[in-house]
Amino acid sequence: MTTVLQTHSLVKRFGGLAATNDVSLAIERGARHALIGPNGAGKTTLINLLTGVLEPTSGTIALDGRDITTLAPHLRVRRGVVRTFQITQLFQTLTPLSSLALAVSVHRRTSASWWRRLGSDAAVAGECETLLERFRLLDVMDQPVHALAYGKRRLLEIALALACAPRVLLLDEPVAGVPEGERQEIFETISALPADVSILLIEHDMDLVFSFARTVTVLVNGAVFAEGDVGSVAQDPRVKAVYLGEADEHGPGIVHA
Amino acid sequence: MAASPAARSLAGYARWRWWELALLAALPLSWLLLPGQSLLLNEIAIVALFAVSLDLILGYAGIVSLGHAAFFGFGAYTAALFAKNVMPDPLTGLAVAVGASALLGLATSVLVLRGSDLTRLMVTLGVASILYELANRLDWLTGGADGLQGVVMGALTVPGSTLAGFAFDLSGRTAYAYSLVVLAIVLVVARRLVHSPFGISLQALRDNRLRASSLGISTSLRLVAVYTIAAAIAGAAGALLAQTTGFASLDVFDFHRSAEVLLVLVIGGTGYLYGGVFGALVFKLLHDLIAAWTPQYWNFWLGLFLVALVLVGRDRFVRPWTWFARRPPP
After folding, report:
1. HSE-up of B25 (CA within 13 Å, CB side)?
2. Nearest Cβ partner for A98 among B13, B192, B217
3. Looking at residue A85, which CATH number applies to its domain?
4. What is the pTM for the complete model shown?
5. Residue B285 and residue B47 in contact, taking contact as beta carbons nearer than 8 Å
6. Which of A9, A101, B277, B310 could pair covalently with A59 via S-S, beta carbons 3.0-4.6 A apart?
7. If DSSP codes are grouped into helix, strand and coil, which group holds residue A233?
8. B161 to chain A nearest CA, in Å?
């Protein structure tokens, strides 16, 4: 296994609070890596550091061994570090189709073209169609995004990230706020993501975490608390105590956080 | 082979609508059928061009401005000064004014990249005020408060030909034809622009700048580019005014210019490119009609119209048959 994305002693302080405290994390090629931890553990801060929305107080981030600690957010995306958002971030007046066509054009380096029509390249349209089909958005592709059902928007959120041709995909709570009945559809699409894409998943839904991830990192108070394969982390008594502690009240095993 | 549904839909987004073609056809028809109205129509065409330029930054990229007259005025003074001091050829003057305004747009675009809408309103207002005061103070160059007089324009000639060309006449026939051609060219080019990946990326960053940057789009560069393009078009509008009236005065930088073009765009509607044209037509015709009827109180009626338009909503306002119909249940 080769490491694609690596952080070394990453620290982010907000005043006196260390939201990210000495985090060294390695994401392997093709990883199915989950990042869990109680609320306020610094999971989203870590994603913001990885994507360049925030600048670390100290420490480094490397992609394929090359330092990207101070690289601008949009340039990281072009190198393949792509994220989805916990709170849906879409283009309300565009359609799913034009949003995707734009994202595809960006990774094909034709998005600055101002004379050719969007999607006049058959390859762009073809790629959009594949994504729309995979994410079951074909029937709503021409509706403005603001008119879409919430579940569809969550799917578009992930489809947009995939349209950027990610090498490392950071999924920030992909089923947050999605009703129980619509979660399965999103689970399925996430499980079916291409095997060569490295995925870091932040999620509170433990069913999803333990069915999807092979590696789990537990973050507590901004620091790595435990790390390992799914089995060992699930059995780790310390993890149970700080994070899955409620399990005892509801019987053995793991419950929804 | 039949195109895929996605390819067909994408092509459909940019298809010419019948009313767009009708509008473009109406431009030359107005020149042919209304020869006596050329002066007024020329004014309308210039305001329309100015408003189309504002629509590119406001309607498409979401950048509010209360100082768009900075570029309009800069184009007007550049064209007038060029004609007076360098050469009277209108097309060369237009090109120089467009280039100069684009440079000014490029230089001031950094000021609108950051901050809130309120910041942008103040910054754009400030830039226009600075230019106004500069034009006022540099009276050895600009004529100060008296304006730049004695600008004599050469005849319009087709580039590369040796024909005599068309002199600007008092009835404004040549002037209106000139402005119409520029307006039509800008509309067609801007139409390609807004349907291109670049144009869609502007709408994307207007809707959600965080997400646009998360797709790998350099939002700052895009904003700089569109601001520069809009400044160039506003400069063209200003140049047309100076060239067709043979005059440039401080009025071109004045706050009321910036406010008026915003009003025009609000009347016509933002974000579909033609709002400036319809807005300019309605605004100027209203002005003319009301001013002929009651010259002193024109602002009152304009105000009333604006309040009604905004309260009723533009979509309902232009469809009177829906005013008394029951609204469909949501």
Report:
1. 7
2. B13
3. 3.40.50.300
4. 0.91
5. no
6. A9
7. helix
8. 29
Residue A188 belongs to a domain = yes
Closest CA in chain B for residue A85: B211
Write the CB contacts of A152 (distance below 8 Å, at least 6 apart in sequence). A96, A137, A140
Q: Which range marks the domain in which residue A59 is found?
A: 3-93+165-250
pLDDT tens figures, B206-253:
999 999 999 999 999 999 999 999 999 999 999 999 999 999 999 999
Q: Which CA distances in Å does B322 have to A88, B111, B144, B317, B330?
A: 35, 44, 52, 9, 16
3-state helix, strand, coil split of chain A in percent (to 5) is 40, 25, 40
Mean pLDDT, residues A146-161 taken together: 93
Place of tokens 């073609």: B21
pLDDT > 70? residue A256: no
Query: What residues 249-278 of chain B have any CB closer than 8 A to a CB of chain A?
Result: 271
Averaged pLDDT for residues A213-237: 89
When divided into structural domains, chain A yields a total of 1
Q: How many CB atoms lie within 10 A of CB A251?
A: 7
Residue A163 distance to chain B (closest CA, Å): 9
Tell me which chain A residue has its CA closest to the CA of residue B3. A122
B204 touches chain A (CB under 8 A): yes
Question: Contact B192/A97, CB-based, under 8 Å?
Answer: no
The pLDDT, as a whole number, for residue B327 is 59
Residue B219 Cα, gap to closest chain A Cα (Å) = 9
Within a domain: A80:
yes
The residues that bridge with B138 in the sheet, in sequence order, are none
Q: State the Cα torsion A118-A124-A125-A126 to the nearest 10°.
A: 180
Give residue B72's identity as a one-letter amino acid code: F
ipTM over 0.85: yes
> Which residue in B263, B193, B200, B230 sits closest to A103, CA to CA?
B200
- Taking an 8 Å cut-off on Cβ atoms, the answer to whether A125 and B196 are in contact is no
Residue A124 falls inside a structural domain? no
